[in-house]
Amino acid sequence: MLTTTKKKKIIDEHKKHEKDTGSAEVQVGILSTEMDRLASHLKKNPKDNHSRRGLLGMVGKRRKLLQYLSTNAPESYGKLIKKLGLKR
């Protein structure tokens, strides 16, 4: 689980305007950080199938958000991909 300070830091990095907390860019940033944390947990605990299922749900949600961004805001999609280091 992300702490509130880490979450605020991620929101500050990806927000579009002052009060932005739920845009697609912010959601993708939070999901990516949480997925990295969960992936390292699964490397240490390979039989934790409940967490693996949660990770797969996060992957699907991030994929849908990125697909939305690529069709509706291609310039912010490109910036986000480069910032997070994702391959597309």
From TrEMBL:
Region described as Disordered: spans on this chain: 1-23
The keyword RNA-binding belongs to this UniProt entry's keyword annotation: yes
InterPro entries attached to this UniProt entry: Ribosomal_uS15 (IPR000589), Ribosomal_uS15_bac-type (IPR005290), uS15_NS1_RNA-bd_sf (IPR009068)
GO cellular component: cytosolic small ribosomal subunit
Subunit structure: Part of the 30S ribosomal subunit. Forms a bridge to the 50S subunit in the 70S ribosome, contacting the 23S rRNA.
Homology family: Belongs to the universal ribosomal protein uS15 family.
Function: Forms an intersubunit bridge (bridge B4) with the 23S rRNA of the 50S subunit in the ribosome. One of the primary rRNA binding proteins, it binds directly to 16S rRNA where it helps nucleate assembly of the platform of the 30S subunit by binding and bridging several RNA helices of the 16S rRNA.
NCBIfam families assigned: S15_bact
Protein name: Small ribosomal subunit protein uS15
Organism, as annotated: Candidatus Colwellbacteria bacterium RIFCSPHIGHO2_02_FULL_43_15
Lineage: Bacteria, Candidatus Colwelliibacteriota
